[in-house]
Amino acid sequence: MDLFANKMFWSAFWGMTIAQILKVILILIFERRLDFKRIKETGGMPSSHSATVAALTTTCGMLYGLSSPYFAICIVFGIIVVHDATGVRRAAGKHAEILNNLVTELSHLIEQGKNEKALKTLLGHTYPQVFAGTIVGMIIGYFFGKS
């Protein structure tokens, strides 16, 4: 099957892309600033990871049926991605935040010229972010699955 004609691929691609664009739009609406860097970053509202796997899984279920082995693979893959986003990556982000605070508080002990770059703290997702990403992905997946 030609990749560029693959509805499941495009569903996942657009799920991720639209979720990333929504991050910029939501920051513009709620924080009154335009932050295009958010397009390529992880974390935040909505979860593009959840949107991607939800779009893929929804399209797969509609094209191949809920009892297909492909749908089962997508469900398991989706559970792993969401678990990682809300668990491991979220915890890593919290650890980075604590370490950044420690570095700031202890900066007087660090020699000049050896300023450490702050660790990235926006890595994982809250449950509402995952839920929103899942809804975005399911809507996109539905349109790819029905066409």
Describe this structure in words.
Helix 1 (7-31) runs antiparallel to helix 2 (48-64), helix 1 (7-31) crosses helix 5 and helix 2 (48-64) packs antiparallel against helix 3 (69-86). This protein has 147 residues and is mostly helical. It has helices at residues 7-31, 48-64, 69-86, 88-105, 127-146. The longest helix is centred in the first third of the chain and has 25 residues, at 7-31. The chain has one domain. 67% of the residues lie in helices and 0% in strands. It starts with 6 loop residues before the first helix and ends with a helix. It is built from five helices and no strands. The radius of gyration is 19 Å and the shape is elongated.
Question: Topology, pairings included?
Answer:
Elements: H1 7-31, H2 48-64, H3 69-86, H4 88-105, H5 127-146
Helix pairs in contact: 1-2, 1-5, 2-3, 2-5, 3-4
Structural class: mainly alpha
> Distance between termini?
17 Å
Q: What is the total domain count?
A: 1
**Share of helix among residues?**
55-70%
Sheet with most strands: none
Strand content: under 5%
Shape: elongated
Order of helices and strands: HHHHH
State the low-pLDDT regions, or none. Answer: none
Mean pLDDT figure: 82
Q: From the alpha-carbon coordinates, what is the Rg to the nearest angstrom? A: 19 Å
Tell me the number of helical segments per DSSP (H or I, 4 or more residues long): 5
- What is the tally of beta strands? 0
Question: What are the salient characteristics of this protein?
Answer:
5 helices; 147 residues; mainly alpha
Short structural summary:
By secondary structure, the protein is mostly helical. 67% of the residues lie in helices and 0% in strands.
